[in-house]
């Protein structure tokens, strides 16, 4: 009888020991997994390069006055994201008293990317078309800088000037369209910052205008000095 009680007590002790050890290990695994997943979700691209800050805005939203509500929704979404995108909105960020053409040109030149909110009102607005042409002239073949955003517009009405650019249609799913605009701007900024970082880390910098490295300049100067001495 005493042996049976002793075996029962030993079994209970083993069960209680397993219950106290196993949950802690499983909780540790779960916590580490959640920490890694949360860190991966919270990881933001490195956009701290000086190339990004060379312009005042990351994105200029071009729109007609009739489409200000949709433009504000797009800007609110982009500016609320963790990357803190800097957006230019005409009615909000224009300088009071300045002329419309100068403000439109300045907005284009001060932004890395341009989102063209193309609607029927956009196509009928001469200032919108003016700003669209300014953006195309600023960077005619730059991937990711000009972002056509269609809203309640038939494909047949798509501007011929933009026929070589893929567009984002936000008519059916506005949230998904805003996410695509966000990813497009981030992709361009990431590539811009990566190119700038690689230039800074390279041993010899190259003059972007002449294509001649600093070493080439030094060699040329030394050759000139030796020629003069001769």
Automatic annotation (TrEMBL):
<dbReference type="InterPro" id="IPR017279">
    <property type="entry name" value="Tol-interleuk_rcpt_adapt_Tirap"/>
</dbReference>
<feature type="domain" description="TIR">
    <location>
        <begin position="55"/>
        <end position="186"/>
    </location>
</feature>
<dbReference type="InterPro" id="IPR000157">
    <property type="entry name" value="TIR_dom"/>
</dbReference>
<protein>
    <submittedName>
        <fullName>Toll/interleukin-1 receptor domain-containing adapter protein-like</fullName>
    </submittedName>
</protein>
<dbReference type="InterPro" id="IPR035897">
    <property type="entry name" value="Toll_tir_struct_dom_sf"/>
</dbReference>
<feature type="region of interest" description="Disordered">
    <location>
        <begin position="199"/>
        <end position="230"/>
    </location>
</feature>
<feature type="compositionally biased region" description="Low complexity">
    <location>
        <begin position="24"/>
        <end position="49"/>
    </location>
</feature>
<feature type="region of interest" description="Disordered">
    <location>
        <begin position="9"/>
        <end position="49"/>
    </location>
</feature>
<dbReference type="Pfam" id="PF13676">
    <property type="entry name" value="TIR_2"/>
</dbReference>
